């Protein structure tokens, strides 16, 4: 056992827990607004598959935008470099559901980790698969090494009912020719992808794929090429935190992705994947405690990718 990580995680978890948690739980998805804001967990999984967790690290939560990395991985695996004809790789510097930039740039989203980009990725998956919902879930389960991973249909439905901005984004892209399937079919997949539930433990072990150059730790199977894993990590580094990606990079120094369910996952290539969950979010939509804890983790260990 690498008690080094265990000791540091315990220490920083308790330090961060003592700080005032002044964010607010995301309100715009009714089903998520009622979550207990005091939930707090962290789990780190090393590339030797050693596991360390503190707090609510085994409790499932809605991974939301973190799922965008997994849909990107599946689409990239299947479509290769052609993917970049439909979606860019530049940080947006804008909120995740921003409309004006998409209009200005003729319906080609800046990157696959903002809503418009993830919706295009879902459109690509709808074109590639006969049963995209089950095939995407099978992919996630395989990477997670866990067949119990599920969508939460109640969360997906709750979001779809009020997802007016996402409807605007997809309609704008359809008008520009960047959506090839039926709007409803693509949005259904998008909302299901966002509704996946995982615990910090499950999330960290799923994201080991990106820490392990695209190979499953369990079987050694190469799921995506090491070049693809490197590129996905680069996109997480520059685009993974809405319009706060620079700040996360500056303070934490790891590729990662956040979701409005309060989760954050970060990857140290060759070393570990770590997931934190705390539902109170800052103004940019990132977990307040999650950001703080990860900053302390890389500061204490002196290990970041820089
Ligand atoms: N399902 C959310 C949306 O489309 C995801 C947002 C997020 O986690 O950033 O608005």
UniProtKB/TrEMBL annotation:
Substrate binds at residues 65, 115, 159, 166, 190, 242. Gene3D superfamilies: DD-peptidase/beta-lactamase superfamily (3.40.710.10). Keywords: Acetylation, Hydrolase. SUPFAM superfamilies: beta-lactamase/transpeptidase-like (SSF56601). InterPro entries: Beta-lactam/transpept-like, Glutaminase. Transmembrane segments: none annotated. One of its GO terms (molecular function) is glutaminase activity. It catalyses: L-glutamine + H2O = L-glutamate + NH4(+). Its EC number is 3.5.1.2. Belongs to the glutaminase family. NCBIfam families: Gln_ase, PRK00971.1-1, PRK00971.1-2. This is Glutaminase. It comes from Candidatus Opimibacter skivensis. The lineage of its organism: Bacteria, Pseudomonadati, Bacteroidota, Saprospiria, Saprospirales. The gene is glsA.
